[in-house]
Each structure stands twice: as C-alpha cells, then as structure tokens.
Amino acid sequence: MGNNKFLYRFFIVAFIWSWVFWLVLILAGYNIIPMPANMLSNLKLPLVSIGAFGPLVGALSALRSEFGKGAGKKYLKTFVDLRWGWKAYVIPVVILGGITCIAWLLPEAFGEERLYMLLPSVSIFVPYLLIMIFFGGGQEEFGWRGYALPRMESSMGMWKANVVLGVIWAVWHLPLWFVQDTSQMYMNFGGFVLLTVGYSFIFSWVLQLSGNRPLAGLYIHGLANAFIPLMPILIMKEGEPQVRFWIWVSLTFVVGIVITIFRSKKGAKPVSVSENN
Q1: C-alpha atoms less than 13 angstroms from C-alpha of 272 in its C-beta half-sphere
Q2: How far apart are the first and last CA of the chain?
Q3: What are the boundaries of each domain within the chain?
Q4: By C-alpha distance, which of 167, 182, 132, 176 is closest to 253?
Q5: What's the pTM?
Q6: Which of 42, 79, 143, 251 has the most CB atoms at less than 10 Å from its CB?
C-alpha cells in the first residue's frame, strides 16, 4: 500500500468505529458488562448496523484529512450516478444469483434436506434488496471499493490489491463471530476469507463494467447479501457441516479468480472511481 498515510487512516478509523460498537455486544453477550437479555436483544441489530458504517466513516475521515473540508460531500455526490450500462446491472444478478442457487440446490442431489426461503415472499425481494444496498452491507462499499480499492489497485496492482483488501475485509468482520446469533457464528472463518477475496475480485470487475460508477459497488454487495435469505446456504445450528456454505464460498473464489485472469489478459486498468481518489 506504499506510503499512503491517508489509506492507513481510512482502515484505522473504519476498524475502530465498527469494533467499538460490536465490542459492546460481545462484552454484554459474555456478561462482562451487565445488560438485561431483552435490552441486549433489542440493541443487537442497531449496533451491528451502525458498526457497519465504519468504512464510510473511515473514508470521510481520510478524505477530509487529505483534501480538506467539503471533500466528503464532493465524494458522496459521485454515488448518485446511475449510468452504468446494462451489463453492470444484469451480469451481477446472473453470476451471484447463479452461484448462490447452485450452492443452495446442489446438495439436495446428494441427500441434503432442502433449506426453504427465509423471505416471507419473493415479491418483497426488491424492497429487501434496497435495504441491503443502503443498510445491509452495501453501505460498506462507500469505503472498501469506493475509497480504498482505487488507491490499492493503483499502487499494488489488481491481483495483490484485491487479495489484500479481501483479507482485510474479512478480518474487519471478525468480532461478529463472537456476537450471539449472527450468521457468522455458523461460518468457518477461513471459508469466509475465500468468500471476501472472491467477492473483491468480482466487485472490482463490476465497477469496471459500470464505467467506474461507485454506486455499482453498493448495488452488487447488497445484491449478494439479498440472495442469501432467498436461497439459504447456511444451517443455523452449531456443529453442522455447512455443505452449502463451502460450495458457495469455493465457487465465489474460483469465479473471482477466473474473471481476474481474463481481465489481466485483456490488460484491464486499475479501478478509478472518483476525482478525489
């Protein structure tokens, strides 16, 4: 990452913001700080959600330090451009939906019981997707792909930047493994690293397809998360082998690698999202 002190500032602020909020849940969950069970239950979703805005806070902090007052506002304005072209809208649906669908259905051919859709109805998928884009994971992309990735690809190259960012992204999630009743509790962390590295490669490609419009990062991240309750890949019980999870993360990683091989052969340029980057 070179000597980019502003990029380091981004990561430090993003981690501190997120981990402080999530640490409250961890300490309360292990009875290190006293908190009634009903209060802890009521606070879990708000604190997890607020913590997930750490990458946005980190990006705004780094931009202000680098460019001064008003840089954050200018940066956020770059996220209102929807002129992505049809490929950036449709291809992620096909790829991410296809990967999740295969992981969801394939184990049934080998005797696994079906996992039924967790959404009340398919009809609410679009509203649910919008929630995921702005509040259910997509908001992380104000930082990861919006701010950090262009700088990292520019200095480290496409391969190294996406591997490093994918690993950092996974580590940022680490406290959630210690928060009761999160989906991460049922995931293998090594498998999750495969997922985030694979996603990083795929998301980088989609940004390129969109003409480097950063809102596309929020869209694909929200889409990836929205498919999970539509086609569940986790058995929410401890000790389960989680066959679907391993198919899901392995396919994501392989698809990300294959896409990046083809991008490299075509001489893809580093992602460059906004003027402030």
Answers
A1: 7
A2: 14
A3: 82-265
A4: 167
A5: 0.94
A6: 143
